[in-house]
Amino acid sequence: MLVTVIDRTAQDKAWGRTQTSIQNYLRTITIADTCPTCGGPRGEPRMARQCDDGEWFNVSRWENPCGHIDRYADVLREVAA
C-alpha cells in the first residue's frame, strides 16, 4: 500500500544546517498490506493534515485492526530492508 510519511531521521540530520521546508522530508513509499508484528491486515491509509513547528503538511494515517501501531520510522526501516 502507498503511504506518505515524514522522515524524521533525515530532518534531524539537517537540523541547524539548513533552512528548508518540512515538505522536503516527506517520503511516499510502498509498504506491505500486512502488520509486521502479527501478519494481520493493516488499516486503510487516509491523508491527514499535521502541524509541526507551525508548518502544515499532509501525511498518511492508518489504524491497524489488530491494534499494533506503525510508527513512521518503523515503516521507513521496513522499506529500507
Helix segment count? 2
State the assembly state of the protein chains: single chain
Q: Number of DSSP strands?
A: 4
The profile of the biggest β sheet is: 2 strands, antiparallel
State the strand order across the main sheet: 1-2
Compute the number of structural domains: 1
- Distance between termini? 16 Å
Helical/strand content category: alpha+beta
- How much of the sequence is in beta strands? 25-35%
Rg over CA atoms, rounded to whole Å, is 14 Å
Uncertain regions spanning at least 5 consecutive residues: none
DSSP helix fraction: 10-25%
Judging from the principal axes of the Cα atoms, what is the shape?
globular
Give the mean pLDDT. 87
Helix and strand run: EHEEEH
In short:
This protein has one domain.
Please describe the topology of this protein.
Elements: E1 2-6, H1 8-14, E2 26-30, E3 46-52, E4 55-61, H2 72-80
Antiparallel strand pairs: 1-2, 3-4
